[in-house]
Amino acid sequence: MQIQKILYPTDLSENAAAALPHLTSLSEKYQAEIHVLHVLKSYGEWGAAYGEYDPADYEKMRRWERQTAEKRLDEICSKYLNQCILYVKHIAVGDAAEEILRLIDAQGIDMVVLTAKGGAGRFDFGSVAERVLRCSPVPVVTVPVP
Fold this sequence. Notes:
Order of helices and strands: EHHEHEHEHE
CATH architecture: 3-Layer(aba) Sandwich
Radius of gyration: 16 Å
Oligomer: single chain
Number of domains: 1
Helix content: 40-55%
Shape: globular
Distance between the termini: 31 Å
Largest sheet: 5 strands, parallel
Number of strands: 5
CATH class: Alpha Beta
């Protein structure tokens, strides 16, 4: 098996960080580039539930979320991935599992490394990890977290 590109989807949590040692080890072993993905949630037109809807407020919130995510991705990459041959950062908006699967195809990803709650093969129903495991066209390495 030839592994040239590994995808690391992260929600920027401590649980997601549990996959980093596995990710860097696999990247070193295969001399593979790492693609780090964070997915921002997509918010619908929520104005009706909160009174007056101002699109500028939504855009301001979205910019803040993106800037915060970019900063956190930079921190993760500089702290954990500096020894890797190459890492590429991606930020998407939408459903996390769908965006992971989309990036697998778009970037020609060979393997996914992510964390999964539940351990012993039990995942929260509808969880991102479970959906990726069921639908991924490439191997998925899951790192259990409590």
